[in-house]
């Protein structure tokens, strides 16, 4: 949905009408309330007219609002954690997986795309996978595919993309400069 568009509803697989993104950038859940996992904390605090009471230890900026660390994650925290999990899975994936594991991996990704807590993100990932079938015949192929998926999201969000030729150094072996060595 583009900025400035009018709120509409759409049907999910469960046939529950879910409001789409509002013109102010707030995504509502099926209950009609702002979806915690589909919105960033700054937007949630802005619509509530509140400031966090306790700073988060994961805060990257002293001016950016954050939830206390023991609150449910917002869309940004959820995304960072999810990408960490997914990239870590690719990093430990076998170099030559069995046909059964390849099938199970595709099933996992499909299920992940359906169960992801942010329904907008889930639909985007499902849509991306429909035209970019998971490549899981080797660790190298799977890692590159996951990097491409992550870059597609980063492009949508206006974030910097990552050189997919370096995915293994980032997620498996550590940087060549030794900063990850122990």
UniProtKB/TrEMBL annotation:
<dbReference type="GO" id="GO:0016971">
    <property type="term" value="F:flavin-dependent sulfhydryl oxidase activity"/>
</dbReference>
<keyword id="KW-0274">FAD</keyword>
<keyword id="KW-0285">Flavoprotein</keyword>
<keyword id="KW-1015">Disulfide bond</keyword>
<dbReference type="GO" id="GO:0005758">
    <property type="term" value="C:mitochondrial intermembrane space"/>
</dbReference>
<dbReference type="InterPro" id="IPR017905">
    <property type="entry name" value="ERV/ALR_sulphydryl_oxidase"/>
</dbReference>
<feature type="domain" description="ERV/ALR sulfhydryl oxidase">
    <location>
        <begin position="71"/>
        <end position="171"/>
    </location>
</feature>
<dbReference type="InterPro" id="IPR039799">
    <property type="entry name" value="ALR/ERV"/>
</dbReference>
<dbReference type="Pfam" id="PF04777">
    <property type="entry name" value="Evr1_Alr"/>
</dbReference>
<keyword id="KW-0496">Mitochondrion</keyword>
<protein>
    <recommendedName>
        <fullName>Sulfhydryl oxidase</fullName>
        <ecNumber>1.8.3.2</ecNumber>
    </recommendedName>
</protein>
<dbReference type="InterPro" id="IPR036774">
    <property type="entry name" value="ERV/ALR_sulphydryl_oxid_sf"/>
</dbReference>
<keyword id="KW-0560">Oxidoreductase</keyword>
<dbReference type="GO" id="GO:0050660">
    <property type="term" value="F:flavin adenine dinucleotide binding"/>
</dbReference>
């Amino acid at each position: 949905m583009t900025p400035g568009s009018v709120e509409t509803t759409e049907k999910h697989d469960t046939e529950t009408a879910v409001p789409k993104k509002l013109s102010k950038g707030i995504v509502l859940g099926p209950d009609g309330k702002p979806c915690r996992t589909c919105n960033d904390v700054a937007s949630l605090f802005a619509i509530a007219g509140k400031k966090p009471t306790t700073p988060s230890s994961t805060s990257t900026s002293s001016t950016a609002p954050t939830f206390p660390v023991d609150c449910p994650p917002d869309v940004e925290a959820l995304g960072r954690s999810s990408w960490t999990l997914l990239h870590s899975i690719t990093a430990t994936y076998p170099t030559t997986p069995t046909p059964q594991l390849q099938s199970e991996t595709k099933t996992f990704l499909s299920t992940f795309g359906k169960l992801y807590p942010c329904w907008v993100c889930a639909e985007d990932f499902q849509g991306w996978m429909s035209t970019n079938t998971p490549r899981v015949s080797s660790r190298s192929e799977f890692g590159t595919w996951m990097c491409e998926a992550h870059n597609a999201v980063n492009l949508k969000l206006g974030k910097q993309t990552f050189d997919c030729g370096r995915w293994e150094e980032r997620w498996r072996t550590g940087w060549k400069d030794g900063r990850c060595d122990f």
